[in-house]
Amino acid sequence: MPLSPRRNQWRRRLLPPASPPPAAPSPAPDAPPVHKDQGSVVQAALYRDGRRVSTPDSLAQTFRQLREYPDGMAWIGLHRPTEAEVLSLAEEFDLHELAVEDALEAHQRPKLERYGDTLFVVLRAARYLDAQEEVEFGELHVFVGRDFLITVRHGAAPDLSAVRRRMEKTPELLALGPEAVLYAILDAVVDGYAPVVSGVQNDIDEIETQVFGGDPAVSRRIYELAREMVEFQRATRPLVGMLHALMAGFAKYGTDEELQRYLRDVADHVTHTSERVDGFRQALADILTVNATLVTQQQNEEMRAMAEAGFEQNEEIKKISSWAAILFAPTLVGTIYGMNFETMPELKWAAGYPFAILLMAVVCVSLYFIFKRRDWL
Q1: CA distance 368 to 158
Q2: How far apart are CA 225 and CA 231, in angstroms?
Q3: CA-CA 20 to 30 A from 244: which of 74, 307, 317, 349?
Q4: Do the beta carbons of residue 209 and residue 226 sit within 8 Å?
Q5: Positive or negative, the Cα torsion across 52, 58, 64, 70?
Q6: What is the pLDDT of residue 121?
Q7: pLDDT at residue 304 greater than cutoff 80
Q8: Spatial separation of the C-alpha atoms in residues 124 and 157, rounded to whole Å
Q9: CB 87, CB 14: distance < 8 Å
Q10: 16: pLDDT confidence band, cut at 50, 70 and 90?
């Protein structure tokens, strides 16, 4: 099949210029692209009237068989695809260059964009890792066209094989086309949020117990969970607007009544999840405030206890110092009279001894009352 001018433009804009080896022959139009990682194509299947009619082995075979079934639908699943694989899909299905660049680079925010007849959707899936008590996020890009649906996963979540099995068990729903598959994927992503919400709720309950138990490591846990909730909020909040945008196009694109009910149910679930995540962020902020208050109170109590201990110690020192001063007075007098000098004044005085004893007593009693009045004793 000859390439359109738009597809030739793809090769000029996205593929780096390179000179092929002289001896290398030009690949046939249906030849499979050169893959760096053959395992990136998770599964490719063709469906007619909601039933699988073929499971091609390569992208090139998928393209060829889809041309043979004009009324068929191709469902192609990729996991971390190479640039060559994405570009081959872009050429075959005429995907917009901006959407392809997003799919190649990943790390995109959740969004919904329409390029002509192709719908491009970016989703952030999440799953709760119970052992690590943390939330793991994955990124999913979905291209939806008239007769094809392409999923490009960057991460472990979500499990799209389960979505495929469920859709194949309901051929009447799968027969509604790629739009039905898109809604099933949206439902799977939103349902995957439920275990995350339950796990986070359990973590918050444990954190509250740690906070009031005085665990010093709880502050770090609060911060890490709050950071995950910011990421979770970025994954869920845009979905509300995306789903409402899809619902607004029901009449314009003639969406089946069953799919309309399907999408409304998904929208209700994601709105509920988004509200829960907002509540978690607020709860964590409140818990962090309470924890800071409790830590401050604990520090104040410790400082008060240290101050009381210091005051008691100071009182004891004052008592010891007071008694030491009282005992120092007779020691001083006795020391002076104990010196062996013959020319000391009053050495021959008969009243010298009683006077020395009286002097000691007066000084000690005076010091006692002075210290007692100052509450040192």
Answers
A1: 85
A2: 10
A3: 74
A4: no
A5: positive
A6: 92
A7: yes
A8: 9
A9: yes
A10: very low
